[in-house]
Amino acid sequence: MFNPEKKIGASLLVMGLMLNVNEAFAQTTPTCVKAPTCEELGYDKVASDCGELAKLRCPFDPDKYFCTAYTDMNGSKLAEIGDFVYVDAISAEPISGRIPVGIVYDKSGKMMSIAQFTGQTADQCNSYTTDGTAGWKLAAIEDMGLIKSNVTKINSQLAKLPNVPQIETNRGDYTSRLWKTSNGTSACMVKGVAINAETSAGCDRSVDGTDHFDQYSHALCIRTFSAGGAGKDPTTTPTTYKVGDVYTNDEGVAIGTVFEIDSGGTHGRILSRSSRTGTQAQAIEYCDSLNASTGLTWSLPTLNQMVTVCNNKISGFAEDVEYWTGTSNQSFKAITELCSNFGSNQTPTSNLSYFCATSF
User: Fold this and answer.
1) What percent of the chain has pLDDT over 90?
2) How far apart are the first and last CA of the chain?
3) Which of 17, 153, 217, 283 has the most CB atoms within 10 Å of its CB?
4) Is residue 226 helix, strand or coil?
């Protein structure tokens, strides 16, 4: 006899089993998606693009590579944006007594010059040398774009160096908004304006029909570096000195007299060529002003350094003259060739003689 309740119950049981099977199948069946390309995974370079950086090969294409941003081929850290590059070192903070060769603006191994150039700059970068490091060239607009994108960090680092100008990014006169490039165009460093917008408001080269590009533009030089630092021009032979020698800069201009020297004769301390007179504040300000023109970090010599100057009878130093020192408010005075620590506390507003000293 037909029983509709049993028939319906059996049907529901079968349908329930089918639903359970379908649900289980749906949970275990993977969703098919398109595999990412090497470029999408970051492997967007060829081997030669990586230079000294370590490189990883794409698993899908042996010709595509990813260059590590922080290490060289030996696994050593290369640099961070804003790091100071010296001849033989890279540091996130300035190294006391030394002026860096450049500042990192590109993690692939490029640094910008500390110095800024104005006016006719076509050949200035080619002849630019700092701490024996040559091989500079005028920045391209692509380089200026990278510098602009990292300008906040770069400026915060430049602010740590005495008397060194920062990269101007505000709307101002022509000297702050026009930057020469090797492309023959000007780079616009004004915030909120495209790097190549030389005809836009805030970066227009011409006013009243006059092109101010050559007259007012700034320029930066760029150079590559390695994990060990900038290195020097391989043709440069280090100059050796002895106490009493005149120290000259790269252009042959005498800027000081050697009063201390290391065993190799290549590093030591120099004293400014002549003394001046002023208050302690005026003395400090003048010594600081020598940084930009010489590429070295000057300050008042310490009390002990003045004793060394006296003992070594450095030219320009005089007995019975009271000199400012960088040791608190103390002065130094030698009496009849006695070069002991004749230091005495002085009022900062006193007018005393002073020298400036720096390491090289």
Assistant:
1) 22
2) 114
3) 283
4) strand
Stated as kind and residue range, the H or E segment containing 214 is: helix 213-216
If DSSP codes are grouped into helix, strand and coil, which group holds residue 71? Answer: strand
- Tell me the pLDDT tens digit for each residue of 95-121: 888 889 999 998 878 999 998 887 656
Q: Which two tokens stand for residue 142?
A: 């692509």
Q: Find tokens 């701490």 and name the residue.
A: 131
Instruction: Quote the pTM value.
Output: 0.47
Q: What is the pLDDT of residues 44-91, one digit of tens each?
A: 777 766 654 556 677 778 787 766 544 444 455 568 899 999 988 888
State the DSSP string of 137-193: EEPPHHHHHHHHHTHHHHHHHHTTSTT-PPPP-SS-SHHHHEEE-TTSSEEE-STTS
Cα angle value 86/87/90 (rounded, 5°)? 40
134, 230 in Cβ contact below 8 A?
Answer: no
Residues facing 222 on adjacent strands: 112, 137
Specify the amino acid at residue 169. Answer: T
